[in-house]
Known about the structure:
Rossmann fold; 46% helix; binds thiamine diphosphate; two-stranded antiparallel sheet; alpha/beta
Amino acid sequence: MTASGPEARYRGMYLIRRFEETLLDMFSQGLLVGTTHTCIGQEADAVGVIGHMRPGLDQVVSNHRCHGHYIAFTGDLAGLAAEVMGRSGGTCSGRGGSQHLCRDGFYTNGVQGSIVPLATGIALAERERGDGAITTVFIGDGTLGQGAVYECLNMASLWRLPLLFVVENNRYAQTTPVELAVAGTVPDRARAFGVDAAHVASTDVEEIHAVAGEMVEHVRSGRPAVLSIDTYRLRAHSKGDDVRDPAEVDARWATEPLAVAGARLDAARRAALEADADRELAEALAVAHASPVAVLDEALA
Ligand SMILES: Cc1ncc(C[n+]2csc(CCOP(=O)(O)OP(=O)(O)O)c2C)c(N)n1
Ligand SMILES: [Mg+2]
């Protein structure tokens, strides 16, 4: 996704939203292999932050809720669709599935917290290589309970690693509310290690993009940083597992990222952007559907 500006960011978020809504439909039809976690409601984080990354140079490390990050970084809808369908044309030949993506400087793993040491190692390697690349790692509020996060904040600070930690605080770790799991604040935790931090309490992609830009500049100057974003997932943790008060979820639709960003666009222009994204998605899905089912030998070849 190389285009920039509010229209491109709206289109990028819309594409992620439609992709994941389609995935949920496909899951119901038994077309997906394994499970899937959507970022519906959190698209502004992916688009706002990753808009500052330079594909081909910078590295992005993500978690179980990774589709938005992957699409924002690679634009590879067909590869992701084929991957979650277990098809040979998938990002990892259809053997990794939704949570295990690896392509062109983008890595994910579903083991909570495991990705943080991975990203720290990548950032160290990039610093040693001296090519100016930065690494961004996305974690959720629940992953703040993993001790490895703090070991990595310590190392990143001591070694001045070009590493941006992004915390997407969607208020829940599966069913556990953040109030029961996280004491204090994320920026205070970062600052305890001498790491600069910013906090965005907004689902507005423009606001997130602006603050992320400041933090990315900071990281490019050779210091790690933490960006904490308050967000909300509008669908279940995975698919059927939602124990939140339906009234709480309903209220959050009023401030979901597409509504916020879309309200600023001319209606005809917005419809044109959506139609263009729908066409791109339909073409990608056609490619994925036409791809043969993956076989183990092929993946290992
Ligand atoms: C080490 C480990 N423990 C437990 C799980 C099961 N699990 C998957 S996602 C999740 C909650 C993650 O919460 P959070 O970090 O807030 O991310 P979110 O799902 O809200 O995006 C849990 C407990 C896991 N994947 N890895
Ligand atoms: Mg969470």
